[in-house]
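Database export, one record per block. Field names are fixed; values are copied verbatim from the stored entry.
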Amino acid sequence: MAQILSGKVVAKAIFANIKKEIEEHQLKPKLVIIIIGHDPAAEFYVQNLEKKGSKIGISVQTRKFTADISEADILKEISLLNDDKSIHGIMIQKPLPSHVAESKIVLAIDPAKDMDGFHPVNIGNMILDQAGFIPSTPAAVLEMLRFYNIETAGRKVVILGRSNIVGKPLANLLLRKDQTGNATVTVCHSRTKNLAEITNQADILIAAIGRANYVQPEMIKQNVVVIDVGVNQIVDLEKGQKYVGDVDFEKCSEKCSMITPVPGGVGTVTTAVLLNNVLKSTKKLTVQDNFIDEKWLKK
């Protein structure tokens, strides 16, 4: 039976470190989340961030706007947040209304306050292995690999999914010359031929394709490490609605050496990583404003 890689344990360690640093250096981190319109799942996620932030010393404030707000008004709001020195992080909660261009919104955010890590400056820094903010879900995968001492150097990693949010950034991160890098990475997608042939070569399989229970036992080799990024809502005849990953957990866990559960896996760590970005931003902006020793940033 596979070892279950709990995300809750990883998140707990990250939260504990954030709280310690905030108390030790008497910081007052502040994250502002912009949410537009009414989306129950988005609102639940934001509420969870507010609760987690409150417990560890990060002020998480949500600014809600109606779905008919103009793009120009959103850009004005972002400009005000960029200029406010008491605010260390900005996050735009998805989804956005159809009349709002996501690319314009992302570009408007100060890269130093871009907690999602999607600004081209941060993406460029990530690819060039320079300092910057990394998208939370790929960063959460790396935290899982690091926490459980999963070796990536020289190993074959197959990523299912090529999204800008997970697949593409994660592929670049796994190529880095560091503890969670130096892997040989293959990215598969909807046009990939002979998919099972490729996934069967993986020492580490990362599923981020957005299809419930898509990965079946015949697609993986014995003792593979499986990291399931997918979160899909399905209807169970006995339990009603429930969430499952992109991997058929019950069937595949018998062949895996390690596997992440859904829920309770990567998604749990994603929240912790996002709030850790707020801490990093606070430290950096505090250094700039107060001329504190920059060696502190490397801790």
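Remark 1: The longest helix spans residues 266-290.
Remark 2: The chain has ten helices and eleven strands.
End of record.
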